[in-house]
């Protein structure tokens, strides 16, 4: 029996409710591997789980993404062995820990060229970008798209991936500093949503046409601007709620604004089968190994400072990706 340093919550609420405790970890059972974790990814969905927007049974852990080294292998596991460097990005919840047992079929062996930190920073966000750009709406070379929060962790990866596919990217940001970061990562046009009318600028950039797809992880605050940026029969991909959830939506808006489409996808649905998850991860690994996708790690916090990490992410003080180090 080994001991792990674990972040736990006993009720939903603010960042101050996260507690760091020591817990015993038993040997992995059939179908599991035990991972000594070296880096943990921080994602906005962790905040939704913590504050109760996405309810969890209590008490519970937090976190969906990490990387580390296999310490033990349960019966029946064939694709992983002790000493393998591995990562995961689709849970199950409980990644905020130094040591854990994981379902082996949700764990990916890392290529030598990808470091633990890079892997922990890229799995959930990179797999999200992959399904958004290649499945929810298959972007094509020559198209122009709008991506909100372009300087965030998902945004900076999406700008690069879309650029590699020959797509023109319009990105929204909240400051000139963030605009510069987005442009450095392949964003062609930046719009400061604090000082500019997003839809008006999109129309100017596209010579009045609008865009075929808007990727919106912000939610309530950007909804109308997103809809008004779309061309007729365009698609709004609402994949997050950083500004709060969209409720009581009037479907009539979709007809009034041009027979628009609206979808609310999740990574969990797009990686529900083992085959879908491994295919997604393989594409992500290939993009990173090719050099076309750089993973921007801009913040690192000790796991013991998890409360501050959450406060900074919620306060929009971070750019790129953030790691917790056990």
UniProtKB/TrEMBL annotation:
Reported EC number(s) for this entry are 1.6.5.5
Q: Name one GO cellular component term.
A: cytosol
The chain positions of domain Enoyl reductase (ER) read 13-324
Give the record's keywords alphabetically: NADP, Oxidoreductase
Q: Keyword Oxidoreductase on this protein?
A: yes
User: What's the top EC group for this one?
Assistant: oxidoreductase
Q: Which SUPFAM superfamilies match?
A: GroES-like (SSF50129), NAD(P)-binding Rossmann-fold domains (SSF51735)
- Report the superkingdom from the record: Bacteria
Which InterPro entries does the record cross-reference, listed alphabetically? ADH-like_C, ADH-like_N, ER, GroES-like_sf, NAD(P)-bd_dom_sf, QOR-like, Quin_OxRdtase/zeta-crystal_CS
Q: Which reaction does it catalyse?
A: 2 a quinone + NADPH + H(+) = 2 a 1,4-benzosemiquinone + NADP(+)
Keyword Chloroplast applies: no
Any Pfam family the entry gives: ADH_zinc_N
| MF annotations from Gene Ontology | mRNA 3'-UTR AU-rich region binding; NADPH binding; quinone reductase (NADPH) activity; zinc ion binding
Q: Which family does it belong to?
A: Belongs to the zinc-containing alcohol dehydrogenase family. Quinone oxidoreductase subfamily.
Name of the protein in its database record: NADPH:quinone reductase
